[in-house]
Amino acid sequence: MTAKATGLAVTPTPILKREVTEATRVALKLQGKLKRERSFERLVRAGLTDTEKSWCRSYQRGMVVEFSQHSGSFRRGDRWTVTGTNMLGFVEVRSGVKLATLPLRRPDRFEVFEKQKIDVGIGERVRITKSIKTRAVVDTLLGVVSKCHARPNRTLPTGSVHRVREFTALGHMVLDNGFILKKNAGHFDHGYTVTCQADLPRRVDHVVCVDSKDSGNGATAEKLAKGLSLGRRSAAVVTDRESLTSLPREAPSGVSSLDVGTNAKSLVNSITDVIQKRSHEVFGVKPISRELERSMER
């Protein structure tokens, strides 16, 4: 894979996504492509429905509530941290020194997230999970986030993938496009692997769909179609023997003119042999069989 080529791994479940991401980062560290790692906190959706958000028992200390619409004294974009429930059964939240109770009767006006630790180094690929307002750095040597040194009113759209170029003195990330990703932005993840349910990019050069019997849910024809259709130049399927029977014997509908399977070996090797070994140790991934390659090419 060339330096300008883009690639992405697609998995059916979040569990498999974490394993593939871990294996990819191990390989990049051994190659010296990830340097000066730092720890950040990212926000992961708690998966609560509007009904569940109206129950006080759904909230735990440390959860983050972000408002998508104005609601009373809460403004759109405000972020509050849950501190607990009071004697009257109201959910108490804090933002800096301000205290308030959560408007449980308007659950459609806010979203609930959980905090998760994430390590990011220079050279890391990060994916934006929710649109973020930011600034573009003018003086990359200073890397300062301030009105006098940075251009305002910039947006990192949902699903966009960028490489971390450097860290500022304040610990923020400077991306390859010159935009700032603040250390407390929260809405970002590693950009190597996504699930079929995530906000996928429009197209990338190379796509690898990874499936395993240990992931819980095998890849269906629809999931394969969604993942393989992203590949502009090539696409491949990497799986174990037990999962081959659940894969479709013909290219799923919606996938056309794709080089499926023929570049599987070169794509996996480009991710490095370390990933193959690590993936085999963790969830038994083996290269795609020639029989499946021929059947999918037809």
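That was protein one. Protein two is written in the same sequence-then-structure order:
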Amino acid sequence: MDFCKYYDFEYEEIHRYLANKNIGRVLLQFPEGLQPCIDNVVDELKRRFPDIEFYISTNPSYGSCLVDEYSAREIGAQLIIHFGHYEYPGYRPSIDVLYIGVKRLNIDIQTIGRILDDICGEKNISKLCLATTAQHIKDIYMVIDRVERCKIFIKGTIYGCIPLNPDNCDAIVIISGGKFHCISQSLALLSMNPKPRIFCIDPYIQSVIDPEPEVEKILRTRMWKMFQASNAKKWLIVTGFYGQYRENIVKKLVEKLKSLGKEYRVVKSLRFDREILANIDAEHNYDAIVVTSCPYIAFDLKDYGKPVLTVGEAFMVLENNFSSYRYPW
């Protein structure tokens, strides 16, 4: 498939890992965007390792917080090869995992370097921090030598639900396709004072995105959702699996709801979406919904009939404290 030729599935890295191990069965896990390449990858791995059985997981793989441990145990796999992400901080799967970032090929490093140098030329920017997704993490180390007008700090791989540490940053640059990582980091840094400037570079079209206008629009929506939830009596708490099961957060929410005399239910879901909400008739059974698994879900369900909140937003409502926006937890 032509699409797949633009990605490096790092077969040599996989070969080095498997060559000296006695492994008979492996589970392969891909995010949806890379699943069209499954056949290509399996063909190449079978050519290199004809004695290994390769199984494929099509369960959700939005990030490395969702390593498919259950499927691996069910089939007796000794290893999971997780494509498209690197290890999620604070989550260690119960089965050995090899993380393959799947580098995106043919990115114009020279143009990105020029864009970064232009950003460095703006007023009061002498220390520039870079973060990116697994597909581009190797590229940003190649970019550093092309930037002459300020000092570069590499903040590493970016995650949509983990705020970057802005220490030593006059400005932060997020290199990522799409807007999700750019917007999420902008929201996470809102309460900082002083707040570093944020620039976002889409490496596929070599353009700089200013997240501020969209962040302001999102904040208006989020404030309205919190207002809708301010008098909620019955709450639905959504928790996830694996790295998306945040036991301490659920416990704190339950304790807070109990102290306020609120009713609540806790639902555990691997994939939480509109269909599940419809199945449990959430629009009629609950006044507010808080998603502890992934903050993006709350944004994706912004037009749902009842307010769907992130954890941080839920605590803002329950504590009646709207002095600063709290994202994600």
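The first helix runs from residue 11 to 19. Keep this in mind for the problem set.
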